[in-house]
# Entry
Amino acid sequence: MYAIDFEYDGQYLSDYGFIICEFDSSSGTDIASAGSMITFNKVSRNKGRQFSLVSTQYDECIRTTFDICKNPDEYDYEDVEISNDEYRDLIRWLNRREFLKFQVFDDNKERDTCYYDASFNVDKIKVGEILYGLRLTMETNKPFGYGQEQTASYNFADITKSYLLSDISDEIGSTYPYVTITCNADGDLQIYNELEDCTTLIKNCKVGEVITLDGDAQIITTTYSSHDICNDFNYEFFRIGNTISTRNNRISVSKPCKIEIKYSPIIKDTP
# Structure
């Protein structure tokens, strides 16, 4: 993918008349970090003949650098200089004190499959005293990016049936999705994921009640204010996952209901 444009906080680089470019390229192979570097903490055993793994952790967040300049298809050669007002508009947009959604586009206006929560440090690229470009250093808050949001909907009219959900994340392990449950029967509702061996229990559900589980934020809500859901919930937030051998999560329930599951898969790549 050859990136020329990006979206950041709902605005596009092309809205400013700029494109992604490269001012200082070298011949040969370019090696780019894929992020998600892991530190393996080990202890010595058997007089140093063997080391046991104690813990692991991601070493750092994704960080990458690229250049931008005025789009030569939109400006005459004598107009490619960046004015002070244009520079101030760009740095006001990009140099933020919070992490916001960033995603790149190629020359066919195709959106990359991955997005990041990012902000930018900005350096000027000058020839003499004339400003021709900006070098952006992208800082993120995670060692990986996220794919486009995935949505799966299931109608458990027959509770003897189960459904499969495939977790397409690059990260082996568990993910807490955003779950919306529409109850179609009174009683205690159990949602079971066989792969995770995890049971979510919500007691005293009512027909027509809509319950949401925000696994990331660890928040449960209901449309029925009379339902004391905080005391009727076992606080086992529903989760999905994958192992090295399977991505399939088999989901079953104890009461008729409709369930919508939304999550953004982890993508271990840099833009």
User: Anything to note?
Assistant: The chain has two domains: 3-145, 149-267.
